[in-house]
Amino acid sequence: MEWRVKYIDYPSQYRKLEEELVSTIREVLSRGDLLLRQNLEDFEQSICKFVGVNHTIGVNSGTDALHLAVEAAGIKPGDEIITSSHTFVATGAAIHHSGAKPVLVDIGDDHNINPDLIEDMITEKTKAIMPVHLNGRICDMDKIISIANKYGLLIIEDAAQALGATYKGKKAGSFGLAGCFSFYPAKLLGAYGDAGAVVTNNNELAQNISYLRNHGRMDDGDVSGWAYNTRLDNLQAAILQIKFKSFPDWIKRRREIASKYHEGLENIEELRLPTPPVETGDFFDVYQNYELEANSRDDLRNYLTEQGIETMLPWGGKGLHQFTALGLSDYNLPRTEEMFEKAIMIPMHPDLEDHHIDYVIQTVNQFYRNPK
Ligand SMILES: Cc1ncc(COP(=O)(O)O)c(C=O)c1O
Q1: Residue of minimum CA distance from atom 10 in ligand 1
Q2: What's the distance, CA 202 to chain centroid?
Q3: 113 and 132 Cβ atoms separated by less than 8 Å
Q4: Rounded to the nearest whole angstrom, what is the distance from the C-alpha of residue 363 to the centroid of ligand 1?
Q5: What are the pocket residues of ligand 1 if the criterion is a CB atom closer than 6 Å to any ligand atom?
Q6: Same domain, yes or no, for 26 and 128?
Q7: pLDDT at 371
């Protein structure tokens, strides 16, 4: 189907950066710099500087970033990690593959974990909290940090969707023991394939993760233990470094789009919108997605499809506890379940033109003015 407004537009971004990308790819390939080379180090340094941390370890995906962070943090089989059900299955998988159990907490109106419900879920097995900063908005970290301190829990942030978001002036990824980013193509900063990174201020953790990503191999030729092969390719790092130059403009544009959507849709009673961008205040949101709640969501989605507007449902429309094969069905999470019945994500990427945004706004308004 030819969309009038695409949810994501990879070719449009590529066309704008083509010349620089192609010449860099040619240069990297001509040098034969493929693994653990200078482009990777340069990109890791850029992320350190941007997030405000001492170490960045590039890995093969956001999922592996989470998995290695959990393992390097010393989480053991039988431990529990508290997170939310409204997240990508990767968050749960990273916990599961370390032998620990994901323990799920309901969300609040910001679609992030509701910190007021965390304490009730803490047991003697709880070792960590994994807040997921969804849709480019950081969780309520003051409350989460104070609970973690009270019970002696680690914080490992799933910041896959939040590069550049801040809370009280601090960047996503810099609050806990470790922060994990995804550079999956559709992310705020996307590679041409899978990529991710762990950030941390902890020297020992950084060292362990750099061993874990590379078969456990240490400088002296010995191995640190059983490990993995999950390095971030040097070529992808070179690509990410180029795209990173446009990153501030992309965030600015995402925030502009979110403001326009807010202005154009705020009068529709049937919708519950995300918080609009503000210049001052605790939260600087980066709008990885524009996820809203809509009455008659399925009808709205069908109508938008008919009118050529591509939309998505978060994770296909289900939280972790609603995928029966994962064995996490024993949860009653009313706000998460209500959200999954109503949530829809409308196009949000920096290459949207103003006429696209106006068309989306006009079409959503039309739907609610003339219900079928
Ligand atoms: C919240 C969240 N966690 C983890 C991941 C996993 O990242 P990746 O796809 O790079 O493995 C993603 C993205 O896909 C995500 O959105």
Answers
A1: 62
A2: 22
A3: yes
A4: 30
A5: 61-63, 87-88, 90-91, 132, 158, 160-161, 182, 184, 194, 196
A6: yes
A7: 56
Q: In total, how many domains does the chain have?
A: 2
Q: Assign residue 45 the CATH number of its domain.
A: 3.40.640.10
**Residue-level pLDDT at 145:** 98
Q: Measuring CA to CA, which residue among 50, 60, 288, 39 is closest to residue 196?
A: 60
Rounded to the nearest angstrom, the distance between the alpha carbon of 182 and the centre of ligand 1 is 6
Chain centroid to CA 146: 23
Q: Is residue 256 domain-shared with residue 202, that is, in the same domain? A: no
Q: Which domain holds residue 326?
A: 247-369
- 354-368 burial code (b ≥16 CB/10 A, e <16): eebbebbbebbeebb
pLDDT score recorded for residue 8: 96
How many helices (H) and strands (E) the chain has is answered by 10, 13
Consecutive 10-residue runs of the chain (372 residues): their mean pLDDT?
94 97 98 97 98 98 98 98 98 97 98 98 98 98 98 98 98 98 98 98 98 97 97 98 98 98 98 96 98 98 98 97 96 98 98 98 94 53
**Separation of CA 63 and ligand 1 centre (Å):** 6
Structural domain ending residue among the three candidates 222, 241, 260: 241
Confidence (pLDDT) at 181: 99
* Residue to mutate, 161, 189, 291, ligand 1, most ligand atoms under 8 Å from C-beta: 161
Does 221 lie in the same domain as 120?
yes
| Sequence letter at residue 287 | Y
